[in-house]
Design brief:
By secondary structure, the chain is mainly α. It has 2 domains: about 1-140, no CATH class; about 145-250, ARM repeat domains (Serine Threonine Protein Phosphatase 5, Tetratricopeptide repeat). It is built from 15 helices and no strands. The radius of gyration is 19 Å and the shape is globular. The mean pLDDT is about 90.
Length: about 250
């Protein structure tokens, strides 16, 4: 990682998309490229069909994003438009880091939020959503209307639906109402990636509101996708997990 930081410091002299891409290209790895298939489905008919990877570890992408944290919005959008997955991951990582930085003002945070939604066509894989939904979308909506999340939850886009549920992690400690309400919309979703995301969010919601999770499971445990159920109950005691899984098995 030391070499990554060294190169990142050179590239950070000017936080541009071109400099980011140049540095990114220096970390191509055949071994990393070979491992991509374990985490992403990019074959014909898969959710990531056509996505192009060059084999750069995400840790290296994040280090480069940190070095380029001052990149302006136009340059970030240039990265989002790039065909290489790791370039788009870098763009969303920069957006999330800017959104979290104490020095970032409300105007820039809103601009990042608007850019994320406007170019959601380029935030088009599970890791990209997971990088940005919490801090770019959710943090902006923390004290604002969350109506947009309900529109996203009903979108025909898998990635927009995943953004909707993951964004609730930003205000989970304040309240869990939106997490449970959005899970109600997504409980019958056809996509495994939504089952995992929704189940994971339900698990977090249950830590803050156990009664709310019990009520949700009482309504849906018998019919919700098994993967979603398993993710939702993962943190519960063994006897509770067995009880809810038994409810599923009984149907």
């Amino acid at each position: 990682m030391a070499d990554v930081v060294k190169l990142a410091k050179v590239a950070a002299g000017e936080a541009t998309a071109a400099n980011f891409l140049k540095a990114l290209d220096g970390f191509r790895s055949a071994d990393e490229l070979a491992s991509v298939a374990r985490y992403f489905k990019s074959g014909p008919g898969d959710y990531g069909e056509g996505d192009i990877f060059i084999g750069v570890r995400m840790g290296q992408v994040f280090e480069l994003a940190k070095a380029h944290i001052d990149m302006d919005l136009t340059e970030i959008e240039t990265l989002l438009d790039h065909q290489v997955h790791e370039a788009r991951a870098g763009a969303v990582s920069i957006m999330a880091k800017q959104a979290q930085a104490k020095k970032t003002g409300a105007e820039r945070r809103e601009a990042l939020y608007q850019l994320y939604l406007r170019r959601h066509d380029r935030i088009n894989n599970w890791d990209l959503v997971d990088l940005g939904a919490w801090h770019v979308v959710g943090d902006w909506l923390r004290d604002r209307s969350r109506d947009i999340l309900y529109r996203l939850a009903r979108s025909g886009s898998l990635w927009e639906r995943r953004t909707a549920i993951y964004a609730t992690l930003a205000f989970m400690r304040q309240d869990t109402a939106d997490a449970f309400a959005l899970a109600e919309i997504l409980v019958g979703d056809r996509e495994d990636l939504i089952h995992k995301a929704t189940g994971g969010v339900l698990r977090w919601a249950g830590r803050h509101d156990p009664a709310g999770l019990d009520a949700f499971l009482d309504r849906h445990a018998a019919t919700m996708p098994r993967t979603m159920l398993r993710y939702a109950i993962e943190a519960l005691p063994a006897d509770a997990r067995a009880r809810w899984l038994g409810r599923k098995a009984a149907t």
